[in-house]
Amino acid sequence: MRYLSLLITFFALFFVNSLFAQNYQSHYLENNVLIIKTDEGVIKLTPYHKDIIAVDYQASNYQQLPSYAISKNVINMPVKVEASAKQLNLLTDNLTVKISKHPIQISYSRKGQSLIEEEQGFFADENVQGFRFRLSKDEKLAGGGERVLGMDRRGHTLPLYNKAHYGYGTHSKQMYFGLPALLSSKRYMLLFDNTAKGALDIGDSEADILQFIAEGGRTSYIIVAGDSYPDIIKNYTYLTGRQPLPPRWAMGNFASRFGYHSESEARQVVEQFIEKDFPLDAVVLDLYWFGKDIQGHMGNLDWDKSHFPTPLNMMSDFKKQGVNTVVITEPFVLTTSNRWQSAVQERALAVDKQNEPKTFDFFFGNSGLIDVFNPKGQQWFANIYRDLHKQGVNGWWGDLGEPEVHPEDAFHLVNGNRVSANAVHNVFGHQWAELVYNTQKQIDSNSRVFLLMRSGFLGSQRFGMMPWTGDVSRSWQGLKPQVELSLQMGLFGLAYTHSDLGGFAGGEQFDAELYTRWLQYGTFQPIYRPHAHEAIAPEPIFHDEDTQDIVRKFIKLRYQMLPYNYSLVYENSLTGMPLMRPMLFDSGEWFDEKEQFFWGNSFLVKPITDAGVKQVSVKLPQGVWFDFWNNTRYLGEQTVQLKTSLETIPVLVKAGAFVPMIEPIQSTAQYQTDKLTIHYYADQQVKRASGVMYDDDGSSADTISKNNYQKLHFSAEQLDGNLSLSAKVSGKFKEAPKERQLSFVIHNWLAAPSSIYLVDKKKKEPVVFSYDAGTKTLIFSAKLSEYLTMVIDD
User: What is the band of 63 on the pLDDT scale with cuts at 50, 70, 90?
Assistant: First the structure.
């Protein structure tokens, strides 16, 4: 960190102001790319969308690395270029890019509103390179990936070098998954398409200057804008790729620890989940599946038959119980492992200056590192994944992928060229994820990939990556930043970022309250996976009955909410919208809020992150909100005090929300939508409302591309004390129910209605209903084949 600070200061004081100032010579438009020749090289401006511009500074005699951020599926679009004696203007439908000629300086505006401008623009030296931009005085900036610094990262210098932070708590500047990208309160994103070791100085050294530096890498940045924050994310994920649909079982409960030592232990754990009435969808095998000890076996990546004697039978039996098998893999091959000679002979490893396998010592032993950039390393690694997939492994866990140890004197083969470790360090996990994703798709093109990884780059979501927040402290200090971490990552497409529920590192004795609060929060985070060192069991089945009873209720609630949660999964794959959403989506005034969040559009969640809490302050956005547990009504745009107990955390539902649910099930293998309970939160202030539920077979990869899915559309109109409800089905897939039984629960209905009737082709058919005056809920049922409308008369 001291090195980076000195480097930034050095550049700010000398190089930026005296070394590099480009001057215009000529320009031309080629294939919708504006190419500007300068006295220092070439600048290319590529419009990928009416709100997206990529800028490449290409100095003479400089070998560019490829773009890892931009999806190969996007193409550039037509633009208009205006020229005058002093400047060029590049125009899209929304963006105006002004390029001053002497010296070159570029500024960006959208629909007449200024976004950002270069201060000195690009600068370079034989050791480092970078960019400088001016910041507006009151501008706030989120981003930088996983950090524990608050939502606004302005005033910080962020190291850009993915690095493990074992046992972190309420402060961390450098973690597992950094991102060279920022989201501004002025509604634009600035991305640096550079994978090298570097730093991002966000108004730290100089109050109104944003400075990016890197030790090489790609000399490029990208501007992404939009009408709103969700619109910006939609545009960003259009550019970098959207998360493919995960298998539906990814939304279930996981049995996971460090780790299950044997097949018999894993089988016993699965049986106990079922016996104790805990839903379960996956068991995760840590490194003991390929070696009896922690050290000495990494790289074996084959079953230790002395402890897992019948792994194929085990996985088959699990599958029959609705439980999927996920195994850990790492990119390190120890010199003591069974595969070391194979890796050396196949030239699968990163090399030293003499082009020999680079070896080094770290915690697990003397090791080499698989070169995931080299086609030979890719092939060697892919063969292992192919074999395991054919055996019955359903999901992958890529650990230590920063990589945790990455010698600076190691080299990788990128597009046939030797490249230093530092130049591609931050994209190692991204490239590894692409390898795993492509390998599975080659074996079974219509299977969905499940991939846990803790490090990557801009756009890693397009390979199905689901990051977790690393080896968090098993403490209240570890729980506190988890919302912030997931929200920050979700802004940049990595919508499945989640924590090891219960905490991973440390902890001398079981804290039932901390554990319960963490697992309650987990109900409303993307992946539900308690995981920790085995000294204190992460699985709820091994704890006291009181803890089990509370946690079981929340895990079952997660399964009941599968129709709602799975619809968030679909929305993410279609638009890039995160599942956990920051409150700034409601208003920019909430930019700094890091303790509460939206779960989809309908829920507001405030995890409890302190011991002994009896009352919680919750900030309500605009609208009307209902306590999920007792239906208490609150007007928005105020802070309310909610009493709580160990049995609940603050969860509110927005008036006008449709929440589809099912009865509890043992695993998602039992998931059906022929019987649904549709909760509607009525209120006189909400005259019209709508909702959508997605449904498909839960496993086929092509459901979106081939339109093999259904949408259930719900709408409501509440006027003059009457409520009209409609439900409609659109789309189809082979396994879809021909008819669905819908049970409607109308919340906040103030009195028993005089009648409810079904309207069908202008005929009125009475509907039987029940009303509970105590909870103010109205309940009735109807069958849905294609379309139905019901009217509730006051």
Answer: confident
Note the helical H segments in 454-609: 476-479, 482-490, 512-522, 545-560, 562-575
Cβ atoms < 10 Å from Cβ of 60: 9
Strand arrangement, sheet containing 395-398: 254-256, 282-285, 324-329, 395-398, 451-453, 465-467
Using CA atoms, how far apart are residues 339 and 762, in angstroms rounded to an integer?
A: 73
State the catalytic residue, choosing from 201, 399, 695, 696.
399
* Percent of the chain's residues with pLDDT above 90: 94
Residue 4, pLDDT > 60, answer: no
Residue 508 pLDDT class (50, 70, 90 cuts): confident
Q: What percent of the chain stands above pLDDT 70?
A: 97
SS3 content of the chain, % helix, strand, coil (to 5): 20, 35, 45
- The single residue of 281, 471, 571, 586 carrying the catalytic annotation is 471
Domains parsed from the chain with CATH numbers: 2-240 (2.60.40.1760), 249-329+373-407+421-580 (3.20.20.80), 581-794 (2.60.40.1180)
Per-residue pLDDT, 535: 93
Active-site annotation holds for 471: yes
Tell me the average pLDDT across 537-555.
98
Catalytic residue among 193, 402, 434, 586: 402
List the structure tokens of 712. 């259930």
Whether the CB-CB separation of 421 and 372 falls below 8 Å is answered with no
How confident is residue 583, by pLDDT bands cut at 50, 70 and 90?
Answer: very high
Instruction: Give residue-wise pLDDT tens across range 637-646.
Output: 999 999 999 9
DSSP β-bridge partners for residue 38: 24
Give the C-alpha separation, 687 to 349, whole Å: 63
* 145-193: pLDDT as tens digits: 999 999 999 999 999 999 999 999 999 999 999 999 999 999 999 999 9
**286 vs 259: CA distance, rounded Å:** 5
pTM of the full structure = 0.97
Residues 6 or more apart from 498 whose CB is under 8 A from it? 466, 467, 468, 469, 486, 522, 525, 526, 527, 528, 529
Direct distance between the N- and C-terminal alpha carbons of the chain, in angstroms, rounded to an integer? 67
Helix axis angle, 545-560 to 562-575, nearest 10°: 50
Give the number of other CB atoms < 10 A from CB of residue 203.
19
| Residue 399: active-site member | yes
Pairing state between β 178-184 and 141-145? antiparallel
Residue 626's DSSP bridge partners are 633, 653
Task: Give SS3 for 635.
Answer: strand
Residue 15 confidence (pLDDT): 43
Whether 720 sits among the annotated catalytic residues: the reply is: no
